[in-house]
């Protein structure tokens, strides 16, 4: 059975532990997304049928009505195709790896290196969805067989599906330097929820670290987040990390 923990070791030797989404959550997300997309298709077909009825009632020449029926049929087929193949691509691309169903189930698609999913990966994984869903249980078989619970689309695109974790619950344990203000110029939108959770974990647990271990960990995290958000600073490592924490909260990245 696949391990539910996915480990990423960064170049700065910082380990990120991600929780894989699990089959149940993925099925739930797929059910919600399929329901939404089918409802949209039904509305489109109903609109086309209504338009065809209206054309039928018009006193147009027979050739004009026939042409209108062809156009309505083409619109119905084209828009249905766009919804079926574009729904997942649109939402995963614009919602950073989530669809309405994935958001409801609390899961997200990311790159296998822990970075936010790219448009190219979104397109590849969803084009191969045709194989995963069109050939019976291929998608389920590969999810069970792969240690990281990836279907064929994930294997081809280099993506994984993880469970979103609420790091905000740990905020009450974080003690910050008095009168510290966030740097709102930090590009904290590049920080994933799991990376934020790693930051919160360090800030909340640092008083318990051994004196020799605490500055070492702070330095590793400082280098990691500097590279992540492409910035430089003269602040001490822990002050810099506290400012990242405050900037993330200030820009509404957590609820």
Please describe what this structure looks like.
The protein is mainly α. It folds into two domains: 1-164, no CATH class; 167-250, no CATH class. The protein is built from ten helices and four strands. The protein has helices at residues 23-57, 62-94, 100-105, 119-127, 129-134, 138-145, 152-157, 193-205, 213-229, 237-250; strands spanning 5-9, 15-19, 107-111, 159-163. A two-stranded antiparallel sheet has the order 1-2. The protein starts with a strand and ends in a 5-residue tail after the last helix. The model is unreliable at 167-172 (pLDDT under 50).
How many E-type strands?
Answer: 4
First-last Cα distance = 34 Å
Total domains, how many? Answer: 2
Residue fraction in strands: 5-15%
Largest sheet: 2 strands, antiparallel
Global shape = elongated
Element pattern in H and E: EEHHHEHHHHEHHH
What percentage of residues falls in helices of 4 or more residues? Answer: 55-70%
- Oligomer status: single chain
Any low-confidence stretches, pLDDT <50, length ≥5?
A: 167-172
Q: Pairing-aware structural class of the strands and helices? A: mainly alpha
Residue-averaged pLDDT: 82
CA radius of gyration is 24 Å
- Quickly count the helices: 10
């Amino acid at each position: 059975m696949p391990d539910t923990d996915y480990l990423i070791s960064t170049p700065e030797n910082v380990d990120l532990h991600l929780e894989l989404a699990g089959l149940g959550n993925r099925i739930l997300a797929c059910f919600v997304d399929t329901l939404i997309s089918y409802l949209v298709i039904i509305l489109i077909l109903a609109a086309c049928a209504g338009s065809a009825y209206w054309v039928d009632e018009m006193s147009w020449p027979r050739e004009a009505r026939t042409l209108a029926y062809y156009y309505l049929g083409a619109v119905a087929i084209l828009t249905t195709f766009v919804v079926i193949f574009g729904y997942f691509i649109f939402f995963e691309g614009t919602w950073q790896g989530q669809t309405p169903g994935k958001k409801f189930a609390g899961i997200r698609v990311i790159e296998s290196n822990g970075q936010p999913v790219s448009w190219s990966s979104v397109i590849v994984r969803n084009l191969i969805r045709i194989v995963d869903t069109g050939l019976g249980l291929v998608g389920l078989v590969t999810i069970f067989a792969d240690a990281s619970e990836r279907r064929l689309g994930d294997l081809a695109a280099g993506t994984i599906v993880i469970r979103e974790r609420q790091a905000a619950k740990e905020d009450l344990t974080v003690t910050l330097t008095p009168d510290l203000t966030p740097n709102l110029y930090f590009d904290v939108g590049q920080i994933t929820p799991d990376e934020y959770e790693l930051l919160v974990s360090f800030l909340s647990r640092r008083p318990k670290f051994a004196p020799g271990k605490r500055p070492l960990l702070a330095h590793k995290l400082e280098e990691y987040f500097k590279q992540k958000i492409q910035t430089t600073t003269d602040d001490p490592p822990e002050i810099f990390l506290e400012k990242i924490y405050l900037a993330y909260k200030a820009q509404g990245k957590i609820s």
